[in-house]
Design brief:
The chain has about 120 residues and is of the alpha/beta class. It has 4 helices and 5 strands. Helix 1 (about 20-35) runs parallel beside helix 2 (about 70-75).
Length: about 120
Amino acid sequence: MEETAEKILYISTHGKENPERASVPFVLANAALAMDIQATVVLQGDAVTVAQKGVADDMPAGGGFPPIKKLIQDFLELGGEMWVCVPCIESRNIDEADLIEGAVTTAGGKVNLAAIAANAVFTY
C-alpha cells in the first residue's frame, strides 16, 4: 500500500502592514517542510503584498523571526508552494509580472480542493 504524503495548507491574510503576522505562516511552513510535510502558503487579502517584487526586501523582521524575505526564500528553496489570490492582486493593482519568482496565481476552486486534500489548514 502506497503511503500518502502529509499536507498542510497555510492561508495568510496579513502583509506588509503586520510583519509578525505575515511571517508566522512561513515560519510554520518551513518547519513542516523540514519534517517532510508538504506545505502550501496561500496569500489572500493584504498578504499578497509580500509576493510583490521588492516589498519583502523592505519589511522589518517581526515577532523575533528572521526577516520575511529570508523566510520566503527558504520556503521556496525547500520546495514549498506559494499561491497568490488573483482577485486580491487585481484589486491592489498588482500585475502578475510584478510577483516574485516562485509565486503562482490561483483562484478559489484550487484553494478549496487543496483544503479538502490537506491534513490540516491554518489561517493567519
